[in-house]
Amino acid sequence: MYILSSKQMAQADKATLSKKGISSIELMEHAAKLCFQWLQQHLKPNDVKIHVFCGIGNNGGDGLVITRYLIENNYNVTSYIVNFSHNRSENFLTNYERVKDIGDWPIVISTENEFPDINESDLVIDAIFGNGLSRPPKGFTKKLIQYLNQKHAFTLAIDLPSGLYSNKSVENDKNVLKANHILTFQYPKQAFFLSENKDFFESWEIIPIGLDEAFVENIHPTYNYITKDDILPIYKFRKKWDHKSSFGHSLLIGGSFGKIGAITLASKAALKVGSGLVTAYVPKCGYQILQTAIPEVMTEVDTDDLLAYFNFKTKATVIGIGPGMGIAEKTAKGFESFIKENRIALVIDADAINLLAKDNNLLDFLPKNTVLTPHPKELERLIGKWDNDYEKLTKAQDFTKKYNCILVLKDAITAVVTKNETYFNSTGNPALATAGSGDVLTGLITGLIAQNYTPLQAAIFGVYLHGLTADIGSLDIGYESFTASSILEYLPDALLNLFEKPSTPEDTEQGN
User: Fold this and answer.
1) 254 to 289, 358, 365: CA distances (angstroms)
2) Residue 258 in contact with residue 249, Cβ under 8 Å?
3) What percent of the chain has pLDDT over 90?
């Protein structure tokens, strides 16, 4: 699913009007009516007192249409015009007159003294600013946003919470209305996926309004939101005459004294995601552990307690390297030789990333489309510090362009970044915030590449499955009891879930 910028959304609106031969006021009526229908599904008349705050642009026009439907259906509603400018959009003015035509006159707010009483049990509908906001709210409008935040009433934002930009950072947290839920039109906004915005909303869902999808396809948006509908087309079904060699040979390199568990988890993940053969290359102290914990995995060894020589004999399809490896001097020296000589596809994690960050000249030796899976601190060592999440993404994209690689930015919402596109994942929850979770992800991506998924497909699919195990497993055992081993336990359920039913718009609802 595409993620559109505010400019691209405006272009899609215009293209839709032209293709369908409708006016912008008709599209607004349709979109806002769908929002009302959502409200109708969740609230009965007189359940709560509803306050609709409307700006004087098109987002305010949406709010006025919603107000009109609420009045016509006997809801207890009061609407307000947030009169922050003398410039009004035509659609706002048309819908302002339509509300007055049914006998309701919205209350005009022009000063701080005119703020209405709001109870915590009320519902606030935010239609002040929308997707096109380019500068921070000021004056009494800023004060109104702060006032509403203090009231703690349930707040439903239309398209975006007022004060939140869709494609850039907020200058001041106090300028943003905090929404409990967002109804956003047709496509999600980039702002929904960045941790710096986590305090501005709890959940969101898409209201499909029938924008011209062919037009959107042709403009090639560079940001994407990965759902089941995006995963199913890349899934590789197995054929009757396939055998284990059809699914590649994964080599997992890592481990050191006391950290054999990391490479054990990665190796088991590669095996369970379907790699035909898996070999683990570990220090001698890990040999018995690997052979006992995963009898299906073959094992090669290095020195007693750490990796130093990297002199494995396995002819692998792909190599995953780094989990539990450590950064000892001997390991760093052997790793340098390995990187300079290796020509096999790579997935790089943990201490292997840290060693690359200490000697970034080694980055020039990475095979094309190498996948790196840093957590935030490891990413900072690779690309440098950033001031906000938008700058982080820009720096990550620049890094992938320079080194022709793929970055998996592990976070609450994991992003897969390439030189051309960024993919935000739709699965996962706090259950994944547990030791060893990243080691399992390394194994999943490695095992998928072994099966002839492209590195990008493997990164996207691996991240999706990784998160889906937590979504499924946490329903059984809760967040706290979910461990990295639980990812492996629920991986079969995640794979089977792909084929349970086609996804629907409701599948894009977040945080419920």
Assistant:
1) 13, 18, 20
2) no
3) 95
| Residue 448 near residue 461 (C-beta atoms within 8 A) | yes
pLDDT, tens only, 105-158? 999 999 999 999 999 999 999 999 988 888 999 999 999 999 999 999 999 999
Dig out the tokens for 304 from the structure. 């007693």
Q: Three-state SS for 104?
A: coil
Residue 269: name the closest of 454, 497, 495, 473 by CA. Answer: 495
Q: Give the largest CA-CA distance in the chain.
A: 85
Give DSSP secondary structure letters for 290-354: HHHH-TTSEEEE-SSSS----------SEEEE-TT----HHHHHHHHHHHHH--SEEEE-HHHHH
**How many CB atoms lie under 10 A from the CB of residue 441?**
30
- Residues with Cβ within 8 Å of residue 237, at least 6 apart in sequence: none
* Other beta carbons within 10 Å of 366: 18
Q: How far apart are CA 24 and CA 504, in angstroms?
A: 27
Is 0.90 topped by the overall pTM? Answer: yes
- Is beta strand 223-226 parallel, antiparallel or unpaired with respect to 2-3? antiparallel
Question: Which tokens go with 160?
Answer: 């975006």
Residue 466 phi/psi, 5-degree rounding, is -55, -50
Q: Which of 428, 408, 427 is nearest to 482 (CA)?
A: 428
Q: Tell me the one-letter amino acid at 314.
A: T
Six-digit token pair at 39?
Answer: 């409200």
pLDDT at position 169: 95
- Nearest CA to 426 out of 388, 455, 465 is that of 465
- Enter the DSSP assignment of 55: -
CA dihedral 369, 485, 437, 2 (to 10 degrees): 60
Q: What count of residues does the chain have?
A: 512
* Residue whose C-alpha is closest to residue 322's, from 341, 335, 311, 312: 335
Spatial distance between the Cα atoms of 349 and 472, rounded to a whole number of angstroms: 25
Record the tokens describing residue 274, joined without a space: 């379907």
| CA 455 – CA 311 distance, rounded (Å) | 25
As a dihedral over the C-alpha atoms of residue 287, residue 271, residue 346, residue 449, rounded to 10 degrees, the angle is 170
Residue 286 DSSP one-character state: G
Q: For residue 124, report the phi and psi dihedrals to the nearest 5 degrees.
A: -105, 125
Query: Cα dihedral angle (57, 59, 64, 69), rounded to 10 degrees?
Result: 160
